[in-house]
Amino acid sequence: MLLFFAACTDLEENLVGDITEDINIEGISTGDDQGGSDILGGAFAELRNSGTAFHSSYYSVNEIVSDEMVIAAKGGDWFDGGILVQLHQHTYTPVHSFITNAWNGSYNAINTCNELIANPALDNSQISQVRALRAYFYYRLCDMYGNVKLITSPGMDEVQSDRAAVFAFVESELLDVLGVADVSAGFDPSGSALGTDVNPFRINLYGALGILSKLYLNAEAFVGTAMYDKAALAAGYVIDNGPYQLCDAGCSVSNLGKRPAVDTDPDELSGYAAVFAPNNDNNPEHIFVVEYDEVSATGMNFSQMNLHYSSQFTWNFDAQPWNGYATLEEFYNSYESGDLRREASFIVGPQLDFGGSAVLDYASDDDDIQLSYTPAINELTPNSLREAGARPGKFSFKQLGRPEMNNDYPIIRLGEMYLTRAEGLARAAGDWSLALPDVNEIRARAGVAAFGAIDADEFLAERGREMFQEASRRTDLIRFGKFNDAWWEKPASPAHVSLFPIPQDAIDASATGNPLTQNPGY
Amino acid sequence: MKLKLDTFLRSVVLLLFMGLLSTSVSAQRTVSGTVTDSENGEPLIGATIIIVGTGQGTITDFDGNYSLSASEGAQLEISYAGYTAQEVTVGASGNLDVALLAGTVLDEVVVVGYGSQREKEVTSAVVSVGSEDFNQGPITDPAQLLQGKVAGLQVYNRNGDPNGNASIRLRGLSTVGANVEPLIVVDGIIGASLNNVDPADIESIDVLKDGSAAAIYGSRGSSGVIIVTTKKGSAAGGINLSYSGQVGASNPVNGISVMNAQEFVAAGGTNLGSDVDWLDEVTRTGITHVHNVSASGGNGVTNYRISGNFRGVDGILDNSGFDQFNTRVNISTRAFQDKLKVGFNTSFTNRESDFGFYESLRYAVTYNPTAPINGADSPFPFNSDQFGGFFEALGLFDSFNPKSIIEQNTNTGTKREFNYGLNLGYSILDNLTLNVRVAQQNASNANRTYYPTTSLFRGNATSPTRKGRADIYNDNASFDLYEAYATHISDFGKTALTLTAGYSYQQNNFESTYMSLGDFPNNDIDFIDALETSQDLNNAGFININSDTSPDEKIIAFFGRANVTFDDAIFLNASVRREGSTKLGEDNQWGIFPAFGVGVDLNNYLNIEAFDLLKLRVGYGVTGALPQANGLSRAIRNVVNGSDGSVSTELVRAANPDLKWEEKAETNIGIEFEAGKLGGTIDLYNRDISDFILERNVDVAVYGVERRVENAGKLNTQGLEVALNYDVVDNGNFAYNTGVVFSTYTTELEEFVLDAEMRGNLGSPGQNETEMVRVKVGNEIGEIWGPVHLGVNDDGTNIFDDINGDGNLLTDQASALDPDADYAVLGNGIPDFEIGWTNQLSVGGWNINAFFRGAFGHSLVNTFRAFYEPVVSTQSSYNFMNTELKVDGLTEARFSSLYVEKADFFRLDNLTISRSVPLGDVTAISNLNVSLTGQNLFTITNYTGTDPDPALGDFGAASNGDSVNFASQDPLVPGIDRRNNYFSARTLTFGLNFNF
Prior knowledge:
The complex is a heterodimer of chains A (522) and B (996). Chain A has 522 residues and is mainly alpha-helical.
């Protein structure tokens, strides 16, 4: 009996149905997959998982607080406790779920990076890439929340750093992996372990310099110290030494969204439109992009987020869209006619289905049952019209698309490097005319006339037109001092909202360790 | 209840009398024999044998055997509580077996853990309900037999789906992160499944309500224990065959008020030209058949009972219901001079279900009443063939033709449950027995859901590719139980002591597979049986597959109990269980659960004439509660696949190696009394749940993920339960008995990792991020929390109350927990009190049983109204709610007090009229009984939704074809009436019982 008892007191739990150990297996590279066959896949996948292109996290908080995108409450739909109105009107609070999600997503990513950095199987180049990636996530935290914990190994706890320390950490990490002590005239990162191989799903030295240039460009806004010259130097190094080219006429891909029955649909997408198309792999403008794939690399849902329910029939989507995101009328009107970027970026006007017939909305608010997107939006809440607002379509849709999209999403692309160098040079010298050469390079690709003169406001508008839907507008508005201005259905907001609040969940949860302090004003 | 078992306590007491008298026995012949129950042949343990006139005597042992010395011709008086005493004369033979006839039942026996006790000796709150007191009618779920019958037991099948199970709560919220449903024990087998017991086979149900009684069951007893005893074979008179049958008709009641076509158009709705009552289109009169046949018999040594039960139930929703066959066999026998007792029981259930789609009811409420059923009647060109001939309003969110859903799609399942249990009892000594129990259960589900290529609802009929979908789900759950315990009885004069000690090993295993794929060729056949035709097989990423196997989920325990009886009037019970579980953190797997109880038969000392019984009892017990999922103490990772074969993982849940038992300590004070025609029980209890288990936020910077499972807080519940019974009249021809059970409790959150949080999201469309229930330290559980609606502004928006009068209206959802928020408690989801009122009337051969049930003080959020009552301008293709609470001119949908309704109700739950039909001896059948039962006959309530029954937990929101997981509910969020309910029904049933 005793033996029986002894044998039957074993309480070992063998979790056969779950994965409890970290697994990192290298794939088999077939040569044309732009990398991604290494064991860094899990870390770079965090760019998707942290909400770069889905609803309710990083992308949403950065876009909806800006003047380029809005989600209006459409009768019974999209009110959602007022959280979208809060983002638009800058009245968000520490309990805002999207702001919480963006925080959590960033730290989930940082944890995966930290685990990988601790993995002895990584070589120096791989560790450098993951450190650069981690630095990018800390750049996001520095941009959004400012004062955060700097965690560099799994499970450790640290006291909350102030924004200057976070800035300094990102800078030093990037400089270190670039193998340079400083970015100054004649600096030479060519010895960096990151290398120069073109592999936009990973970070090479141009990618790291791109991130660093963004950091420097915002240094004054972030920590009060202007570093525009360094921004221009870093961006300039990428433009001058990198193998990348602006995707202009002749740089084209087939139009996967084409309806054979609709003559106005082009057979090919070229230039600016090709940079963001569903088949934008290997675009020469891509320096560091987030890989998306409808099957194996999911996390981009713009077709769902932006389009009206009935637009399902234009692209033959296998799921019904949500009728959420639209563009503010004023922003849409900031494009001059003939700007190729406007056509590439928005879906407006009467909609046709796959067969060329009118797309119908049986619950249409006006007497016209055909779905027709209008740039004007009648109101923010509670009863915005269902078809109101030009819909973001820069990351364009393909026929028979799934809720998950294929378009790779740029973090660093050459077009932005021109704008960064332009702004860096202009601000460093206090002379906006220094921005003209690079700005006109961008405008030429957009099919619009060169500027003869430019000021800060015009530069910001140009940057807006170029960078639409790339989650850059909030940071740009803050840097240009415009973020707290009034715009459509949004009164002027107090200065403190330029930093998001630290999520209340994070503050509460930190009470057992090193406590987090809320940002000022919340 | 029948007297079958007894404890040795009584025999010991009887010995006290005997001991004084049995000192001078002269050398005479030895007489021995067995005392049995004349009806079933079961031995009577502790029966008294006295030699008349001498005062000498003895009592029977465990097996009913006795032996004493007496002279030939002496008179023996054999008596046993509850039986008619009998005198026999000692003859020439030394063997004298006696069968006693059951008489008036004086001492009811109550089944408790690992044994039974006389009701008198019980020191905790235990209620025993016999089959004669069960709710009548075609009830499939055994839990519903008890609805309203036991004070403190809540049984609510809000989701009145014939395929759904009721929510069962004993004394309210007993745990947060663990199983909230009580432990089920069937014929001694713990953790048994109620689904495998047909109500017709149940003899009685005992409910152990408090911690001191349940503690012997350890962790699984934390939410209370329901002990089911099935009917057994009897030795009386050869084979007894009986039949009972019922046929019933159900109709939906309390539909939801929506606009008709004319009202809808007048309110600005899109007119599609038809006029359809959608609820009427998808519901029907459901016919239910129940047939139960049983055969029982035995020869006094071996007894058996075999039963077969068939239930064919049609739901009120078209194409929903089930056919179920259940069989059960109980056999008992004895061997080795009756020292060895063997009991064996087995049962098997096969249920073929048509689950239907509750969404059909939901969309019947919201679908445009001017929309045509068929595409042919569309007001504009419409490709009917694409949608199987049905009309669909395209381009709308969360809108599907309800008739198409229920007609085109199939949602079926087969559930099979099998179990057996073997009990071996061996009398090692007269006062020491050993019991060994082995039981196994196996349950499997095989569900098939098929959406043809023409179904818009989940069938993707609008897609040129990817049309049609097939879902296949299989699971298998097994449970093994091995237990052994020994019972020893000893006697120290006025004091008797019973000791029980044992070991228990329980193991659960579960495995499941799921597969979903689509894109089928056409609708010629149901391609669920020809999945190889799916075009999804040619496209990566469209097929959903997952499989899971649980670890060996074990509970291992050692337990002991001592029962002391002093003076047959003071009773002490003490037990302790040491239990370990695989589910907890490595260093916290084992816990100790003690219990202590004392009961005093006060009238034994006070001798108050008015009372026949006056008993006071006090119990205290600690139980544990385990989380439902496995591996919660461990870190869990997800796989990240690269496009080219690379594999990585990421953390999704952080480990908590310190995870420990959720512990429940409960004190119960009870008074039981009988005074002439009036009898009753009053129980007061206080319950503390500490270290309750909940998935909590942790510092994502430190842990890498923001969630892990923690011991998160403390809850206190205090409650009062009263059960009264009164024999108003009983004069032979006419009898009227009435009984009331009353219960009330409040649960307060005493400690929590946060000061407060909001839970219970309202959902889509447009009302996500709208959490309706506040969980706050120091407050009651179940507070519905939101702004107070005062009226409507000219622009159609809500006017909310500036509750704190500070001139600053703070009513947005983000401010819900702001100290300055203009929020108020709008109601509480948990009733203030609940009552059940039983009335039994017999006149001549007629019996009338009327059972009323009510719950008072609770509120429900009527979510249909919250979404669809404001006439929002842009949703003109949904129907609007049209209750008397509708506020004209409101065009803004915002959660507020407007949608929180008091849901007090009083209901005639069950009315049964039955008559025994006298039959002459010549007929082949006997004991013919006919009955007519009405269920849910009327309800008095002001609630405008379908059913005012409390919603004790929340299943969350779902929309646009998402599925609801009815297996998982949030007990911290009571009071939300979701849109996913099956509608309740009124049922009329004719029943017939007879014996052959």
